[in-house]
Amino acid sequence: MDVELTRSRVDGRARAPPSKSYTHRAILAAGYSDGAVVGDPLVSADTRATMRAVEAFGGRVDRVTDDRQLDVAGFDGRPTVPDDVIDCANSGTTMRIVTACAALADGLTVLTGDESLRSRPQGPLLDAVEQLDGRAESTRGNGQAPLVVGGDVGGGAVSIPGDVSSQYITALLMAGAVTETGIEIELETELKSAPYVDITLEVLADFGVEAAATEAGYRVPGEQSYGRDDTYAVPGDFSSMSYLLAAGAVAGGEEGVVVEGARPSAQGDSAIVDVLERMGADVSWDREVGEITVRRSDLTGIEVDVGDTPDLLPTVAVLGAVAEGETRIVNCEHVRYKETDRVSAMATELERLGADVTEERDVLTVHGGESRLRGATVAGHDDHRIVMSLAVAGLVAEGTTTVEGADHVDVSFPGFFDVLYHLGAELIEHER
């Protein structure tokens, strides 16, 4: 599907979807338990991949009340060997957290995904599994999927880099809780995207599992049990909110855009509120009610470090293209290893829209004062975050902007374009 947008004003109330990061972790935590209920989940292409994995390991996931609730019958800490290959589709989170889970099984699991996922690095996690005396191989010998994993690991100590993906740490912490001795993680390099590990620790605690940071990294004791008596409620997703907030800041009308479901949590991407404030946006956050209001504002370029918030890079890049002055997005090399190389993708597509952009390995600079956005046909790069950020740019670009491959929003924000339309955006969807 392609989406055609013209310059628009947006106003009104909207609710971002539940958090994808929390939903992934909650589904697998419920899978590790003997049964649990996950309320208000994000049911999307990525999280369905995690549901399939839980079922492949011997659990069951029932979607009830219009997907407002997931009833999970878990495998109680002992995953069985799947009957078939586990297809993680485009979900990097699924592949990584499932890789560590597969290492607990008394047999071998084969994991694969789509072309994009098969190009993403898994080597450090495979090496960590081998340090725990498990078997973990890339079938092509390049540290990328397809993967073969198993070994019935019992715990131990691992040393792993922290600057490639925090999901490696999440995977080991979640699996380590049900091993015999637990897992001690030593970080070889500074941890990037640390707030995502904070989310993991929060979800583990909510399911009765103890884990904590140490001077060298992280530690999770073994022989623990996952479980909870009441329904686990997934919070709203700040990564998805960022596009709605950015839309309000660059194209909001008198009323502005009010985003509901914005209650404080461990999500690092709540930093988008601070970014908008620093750029001069008219934004206010009622934390108790869980609502953020933002109106169109004259923005000024700033420097933003995305070391801990890689998913915000596309949003900030678009804000920078509208702002006066220079916006420097620094500490962003790890953002190149997502569904696509998001640094390069945003540089390429913003330039097609008329932005002046300088791309370096670890820095993306958007020269807002020299940028005048004009409608063009831009590629979504099969990446939900690229698609949604370019759609925001289309709200302010002169003329018509066509975003190709727009259906990829289903990964994290199904109905994104419906929400934009109801806020007043002028858009037309075209089936390919």
Automatic annotation (TrEMBL):
Pathway info: Metabolic intermediate biosynthesis; chorismate biosynthesis; chorismate from D-erythrose 4-phosphate and phosphoenolpyruvate: step 6/7
Annotated ranges, domain Enolpyruvate transferase: 7-420
Domain of life: Archaea
Assembly behavior: Monomer.
Active-site residues (renumbered): 311
Oxidoreductase in keyword set: no
PANTHER family per record: AROM/DEHYDROQUINATE SYNTHASE, PENTAFUNCTIONAL AROM POLYPEPTIDE
Reaction catalysis annotation: 3-phosphoshikimate + phosphoenolpyruvate = 5-O-(1-carboxyvinyl)-3-phosphoshikimate + phosphate
Protein name stated in the entry: 3-phosphoshikimate 1-carboxyvinyltransferase
Binding site for phosphoenolpyruvate: 20, 92, 120, 167, 342, 385
PROSITE patterns found in the cross-reference section: EPSP_SYNTHASE_1, EPSP_SYNTHASE_2
Function: Catalyzes the transfer of the enolpyruvyl moiety of phosphoenolpyruvate (PEP) to the 5-hydroxyl of shikimate-3-phosphate (S3P) to produce enolpyruvyl shikimate-3-phosphate and inorganic phosphate.
Gene3D superfamilies documented for this protein: Enolpyruvate transferase domain
Similarity section: Belongs to the EPSP synthase family.
Annotated 3-phosphoshikimate binding sites: 20-21, 25, 165-167, 193, 311, 338
Pfam families named among the record's database cross-references: EPSP_synthase (PF00275)
Keyword annotations: Amino-acid biosynthesis, Aromatic amino acid biosynthesis, Cytoplasm, Transferase
GO CC entries: cytoplasm
Subcellular location: Cytoplasm
EC number: 2.5.1.19
Database matches in InterPro entries: Enolpyruvate_Tfrase_dom, Enolpyruvate_Tfrase_sf, EPSP_synthase, EPSP_synthase_CS, RNA3'P_cycl/enolpyr_Trfase_a/b
GO terms of biological process kind: amino acid biosynthetic process; aromatic amino acid family biosynthetic process; chorismate biosynthetic process
Annotated HAMAP family: EPSP_synth
